[in-house]
User: What shape does this take?
Amino acid sequence: MAVIGVSTSQDNHPANVIYNKNLLRYPVQTYAVNPKGGQLNREPLYKSVLEIDAPVDLAVIAVRANFVPDVVAQCIEKGVRGAVIISGGFAESGNQDLQNQVAAMAAAADFPFVGPNCLGIYAPEAVDTFFLPGERIIHPKKGNVGFVSQSGGVLVDQMVKFAGQGIGVSAAVSIGNKACIRETHLMDWFEQDMGTRVIAFYIEGFDCREGRAFIRRAQSCTKPIVVLKAGKSARGMSAAASHTASVAGDYRVFSEIMKQHCVAEADTEYELSAFCEALSCYPKGIAGNVGIVSLSGGHGVVAADACSLHGLTIPRIDPATIEAVRSRLSPEIQAIATLENPLDLTGSCVDADMLAAVRHLSRDRNVDCILALLLPYSPGISADIGARLSQVARNEGKPLIAYVPKEDKYKIIIEGFELNQIPVASSVEGAVLMAKALKRCRPC
Amino acid sequence: MLTFQEKQIIEDAGPVGWVLEPAAKQLLAGRGLTIPRGVVTGSLDTARQFLVSVGGPVVIKAVSAHILHKTEHQAVVTGIVDPDILASQMTRLLSLDGCGQVLVEEMVSGIEVLVGAKNDPQFGPVVVLGLGGTSVEIFNDTAIRLAPVVALDVASMVSSLGAGPIFEGFRGRPGVNMAALTRMLTGFSHLVMDLEPFFESIDLNPVICSPDRCVAADARILLLPDRERLS
Assistant: This one.
């Protein structure tokens, strides 16, 4: 990797931050480029990318906008495979012509680039072109969410949230002005990538007809797609001359079309995390009939309320299911457990009761997703409950979503689920949002 | 693809900026969409003959390039059965700005539905369905889909509307012929795809739906300004 624009005097120049962190922390052979040449921290400083005597896979370009065309020309001449153009000063500040010039040069040479005006690419354990010092940002672990963002700031912030929720990314890409590589290209890439199970996009807007291209591509994508849209408030709505124009504002069109084509639109950034986690475990959609199992009646009701708020149904369960569960419950709770949906096994239940309830609820035709609300305060619930319930869910083949309070002392339960690819939420509402994600990506 | 005739209609409407109702309905009828029986005329005799041949109430509307919103100009008269009222109202309409002819049509009854299309900058043509009247704009109870749509889309549009039960026939009232509505929306969505380079938005408001058929009782096609047209 060549980092072009490294400063000889400014240690906190974006190019220096990128150069240092990749040189020191990533398994990437990194070269610094500055026309002055010489040395930087005892490493050679190359006058141009052409001077590097090794093949270069990626050039990170962080020079002033008006130098970018020359630098791109040199990269093409050198046979560099692609670039991330960090530099700002293009279309976003009125210099559309300069941006078009760079895009045209690159297109003619079949030279792909990300940007300009972006943070570029973060691929855990591989490369990181974000110009944010490593010690300042919180990196999510390596995982299976591919994330693409039009805003670098939102991307970084979302990565912090992912890290907090234990969600890992396969790669995160800030596409900036997307003069060359755009959402659809990255959908191609992430669909092929074996490490990615769900593809998430933060979208501010599409160019002319780009939304249609996005939908066409999404329709044939074999992995679930999540979008978070910014700019939802009505704007630019002139006094509408027609009824249709007045009811079909930009955001409504976006949202309805995503729904039509089964792209899961998250309403908030909080939902985005929940959606990514749920869909990375269960790529197939559901109709939205949720069975709830809890050991506290209150939690069951709170979850049921949240389900109806989010458009999910709490169906009646089959009497045969109720009987099957009742006959397998421990004698202590047989008389006191509520076996209508939401099921309340009471605080006296033990692991085996929970397993029986989830197993038989999974076999009920009226239910297509199960929420297990686990309150580990209860003495009958063991530390093995996560792993054991996961086993039941895998055998029965119906999506199971767990709620476990996010506390260090319950980590063994949480890991029991997560290591077995069962999503765990840290709140009841979070668990409901995960079920909502499955409903939003229902195959049409 | 637009036929030569269809292209001609659009080109003729270019200077006005929108397609007048009779021409817009001609476009719809050409694509197999149902429109009311009617006649465009400046002659009282022709209008009277039409009233007799229909044998029921008719509606008359001013045809004028200067009148985009007809109701605001009192340029529509509905429920005419009396030949004298027909004559007096027609004379009044013909005196309106730019009005040389009127459209005389049979009255159709049923549920009023809005069918529309918008040429969205990001997504291209989308079609819109809602219950006609106030529920559309006040409650924004509409379904929007990327054009062209298929039969399954039409079913999902209806079921996603708050007013969906009215389409199915609410509390014993007659509902909408879903096959006819499906034909209308799918046919319309293909038409709007073909019109993509030219139109800004289209209102078929109302489309009148009964258990037998769906009829586009009004049609207005707003064109894009020349400079915004896609080549």
